[in-house]
Design a protein that fits this description.
alpha+beta, 8 helices, about 190 residues, 6 strands, two-stranded parallel ribbon
Length: about 190
Amino acid sequence: MDTVYTDYFQKSKVFLYPLLKLRKGMTYVPIQTYICMEQSYTINDCMFICEYHVKSSDKFIAFYEKYLKSHKYFNKYIYQGKNYHLFIFDLKVHKKDFDRFVQGKYSQFSLESKLAILDFYISSGNMMQYMHSYLSPEFAHDDYAKALNVEVDIIKEVYEVCSIPNIEKETLNKKNETINCFLTNNSLYLEKL
């Protein structure tokens, strides 16, 4: 590895989306993902929120019926109009890995989760190299020390080579009463898909 990625990227999209085991390269992918929703979900809820901006065509409806609504982790769907869709998945079955994710302890993910993540990126060239280094950093410490021009002992002491998630950036904070009413189960009714 000649370079390291130092800019922030949405960690939930990289580490948690593959746990849904939706194959890479599907017609529709979320434009963004989150682990919290302001006034609705915190990191303690273990929810994973996928945000789609797409026209509600027959093709998209068939996609969400087949892959999202029927998904074993599917929890809620919210349509906000203007081609804005939220699909919320309950990742409590992966709570230990979810907690490790929040702490930035990617190398401590379960073997099952590591395999799902690596399988997702298997044909992604450079991304696969990064994922290997994030999930098994001990094999990448020398490369990171060289790329960052620091002593390898500093990298070994930190151990992880990917920064922790920025919870503020991993929080959907659209101030929308319709979403908040729906999620807190008030009397407002929205049809679920």
